[in-house]
TrEMBL record, chain B:
The chain crosses the membrane at residues 12-31, 78-97, 109-127, 133-155. The lineage of its organism: Archaea, Methanobacteriati, Methanobacteriota, Methanomada group, Methanococci. Pfam families: EhaB. This is Uncharacterized protein. It comes from the Archaea. Keywords: Membrane, Transmembrane, Transmembrane helix. The keyword Membrane applies. InterPro entries: Prd_NiFe_hyd_3_EhaB.
Length: 86, 165
């Protein structure tokens, strides 16, 4: 039943992302994050890292669910892209 | 060391699967359309001068300059081999970070890695993950090693057929 934690972390991250106002539209050429990208993949990846390093529980799932949309919101500040070739 | 036919067929099937996965996803997310960095433009222009295709050259330059679905498929195969499905998810996160460090929005690499993980998981009953590591190396060799001009023409043709250029 471990995979339930993965689903839970994705659901929490989507709900938190919706609350903090991430845009729903997906723009493939934009460096800004949106509600689904990279939120879902960051949540899944971090959950997998914690699953391997520690053990999954509700607290870790909640932390990942809160961190992922925040990362997604500020991803263009953490990893800024430069406009070239466009 | 003798090579059994079953192993060879598994390797060839995994090569085909990896090739299709990374070429289709990279083309869909616009790798042949424009160079992401200066190096990709240089590779594209050089290939055009050598008689190849400009857009196919951009595709190949973008593969060299950023971990797109090609590197993603290889990472997914290695991580799946080591850690199972969870490993594929970690590879997706790492490829995304690598993409962003290389001035790439990250869609091609991330979706490529994730789809490769799902495909390897679905096929793991018939073809073990280790064949996908070899298969992806063969697949990338056909693009980046064998004959660059011909490869750029094939990639440009696929891009135009899919209407992505």
């Amino acid at each position: 039943m471990l995979y339930l934690y993965y689903i839970l972390s994705v659901v929490i991250s989507l709900v938190v992302g919706f609350i903090i106002g991430l845009p729903v539209e997906i723009d493939v050429n934009s460096f800004k994050g949106n509600l689904f990208f990279p939120t879902v993949f960051v949540a899944l990846g971090l959950t997998a890292v914690i699953d391997i390093l520690f053990n999954l529980n509700l607290v870790f799932t909640l932390l990942v669910g809160i961190f992922s949309p925040l990362f997604s919101k500020y991803v263009d500040l953490i990893f800024p892209g430069v406009s070239y070739g466009g | 060391m003798e090579v059994s036919w079953v192993e060879l067929i598994k390797l060839l099937i995994s090569t085909g699967v990896c090739w299709t996965n990374f070429v289709l996803i990279d083309t869909y997310f616009g790798l042949p359309r424009k160079p992401g960095v200066l190096g990709a433009e240089v590779i594209g222009k050089t290939l055009e001068k050598m008689g190849g295709d400009l857009n196919g050259g951009y595709f190949m330059g973008n593969i060299v300059c950023s971990p797109d679905a090609s590197a993603g498929t290889l990472m997914a195969a290695i991580f799946y081999y080591l850690l199972g499905f969870k490993g594929g998810l970690i590879a997706t996160l790492l490829v995304y970070i690598g993409n962003r460090l290389c001035n790439d929005p990250g869609y091609a690499g991330t979706f490529g890695t994730f789809s490769a993980t799902v495909i390897i998981h679905l096929l793991s009953g018939f073809i073990e993950p280790r064949y996908f590591i070899g298969g992806m190396i063969m697949a990338i060799f056909t693009i980046q090693g064998l004959y660059h001009v011909g490869a750029s023409k094939v990639l440009g043709y696929i891009g135009r057929k899919l209407g992505m250029i």
